From TrEMBL:
Protein family according to the UniProt entry: Belongs to the UPF0065 (bug) family.
Pfam family for this entry, one: TctC
Superkingdom as given in the UniProt entry: Bacteria
InterPro entries the record matches: BUG (IPR005064), Bug_dom1 (IPR042100)
Coiled coil: none
SUPFAM superfamilies: Periplasmic binding protein-like II
Protein name: Tripartite tricarboxylate transporter substrate binding protein BugE
Length: 333
């Protein structure tokens, strides 16, 4: 009987210790969140300046700084199709002072193409919020012998291997979507990877590469100025900014009609109070009329979902592009 009593007492003691530890952990996390941020916050953009991811980050940074009470520094860490900057984020302490922009390229197409990318998009990060989804566009230099989709397709089919296309890098969403497009349209175009959208767009505008597959927000200024000609877009429907440009669905290629997303994540283990504080700062920023207008003017759609919904979205995109890689037998160059 005494042995039974001792076991019961020990069990109650273990439960009590567990409850105390849980309570203490919760109190510590809450206290840290109240003090957060205690220094400037670094927002890693895993691509070069001038691309859509960079544009989104800079639209968010000032408003986040005001809401959080600390400077938010946009830090461009380009390379390997976004993998270098993303890997750096994964190695940071989970205190919320280093965050990162997450895209389809860094959380789906890149890891799907390269299993040795160095991080797991499903376990090495803490999803915070998906800010917006943006259309993608195939655009050409004005000297290209086509200004509409029908002629574009005819030119490519008549000249297999003659033309090349620029993207933000190997395994970027532009690369993967164009490879999917090539497989479905029966065309052959050579891939020219860059270290971000900015350099890819600059060389296409300069005529060094005739075709670019890019996110619309970074490409749109060049399209509006006549430096590039939009051919086809990946969007739910035609855009008011480009009313004469068809969607991939309209030209019979619905599988290519996938939009890109731009969200914010932290290293794995980021506490719930810090996640909520960062998400609230981002929501407050996007509620500002000028920020919302500038995002929507790019053709982007605001998402602003929950961490759980963003995690599910990342998982779904990763599944899709793993299947694309397997079906199309894609590998890094």
């Amino acid at each position: 009987m005494n042995q039974v009593r001792r076991r019961c007492t020990l069990s109650r003691l273990i439960v009590a210790i567990g409850l105390c530890a849980t309570l203490h952990g919760g109190l510590v996390a809450t206290a840290l969140a109240q003090d957060y941020p205690s220094k400037p916050v670094r927002l890693i953009v895993p691509f070069s300046a001038g691309g859509t991811t960079d544009i989104m980050a800079r639209l968010l940074s000032n408003g986040m700084a005001a809401a959080l009470g600390q400077t938010v520094i946009v830090d461009n860490k380009a390379g390997a199709g976004g993998a270098l900057g993303t890997l750096e984020l994964a190695r940071q302490p989970a205190d919320g002072h280093t965050l990162g922009m997450a895209t389809v390229s860094t959380t789906a197409t890149g890891p799907a193409t390269n299993r040795k990318v160095g991080y797991d998009p499903l376990s090495d990060f803490t999803p915070i919020i998906n800010v917006a989804a943006t259309p993608n566009v195939i655009a050409v230099h004005p000297g290209f012998p086509a200004r509409d989709y029908k002629t574009f397709l005819q030119v490519l089919k008549s000249n297999p291997g003659k033309y090349s296309f620029a993207t933000a890098g190997n395994a970027s969403i532009g690369h993967m979507q164009m490879e999917l497009y090539k497989s479905l349209s029966g065309t052959f175009i050579t891939h020219i990877p860059y270290r971000g959208s900015g350099p890819a767009l600059n060389d296409t505008v300069a005529g060094q590469v005739p075709i670019v597959f890019d996110n619309l927000p970074s490409a749109l200024p060049f399209i509006k100025s006549g430096q590039l000609v939009a051919i086809v877009i990946a969007a739910p429907q035609r855009l008011s900014q480009l009313p004469n440009v068809p969607t991939f669905k309209e030209v019979g290629l619905e599988p290519v009609n996938r939009m890109a997303y731009y969200g914010v994540v932290g290293p794995k283990g980021l506490s719930k109070p810090v996640v909520e504080k960062v998400a609230a700062a981002i929501r407050k920023t996007v509620e500002q009329a000028d920020v919302k207008r500038r995002i929507e003017e790019t053709g982007s759609q605001l998402i602003l979902n929950t961490p759980a919904a963003f995690e599910a979205q990342i998982r779904a995109e990763l599944t899709v592009y793993r299947q694309v890689v397997e079906t199309q037998k894609l590998t890094l160059d």
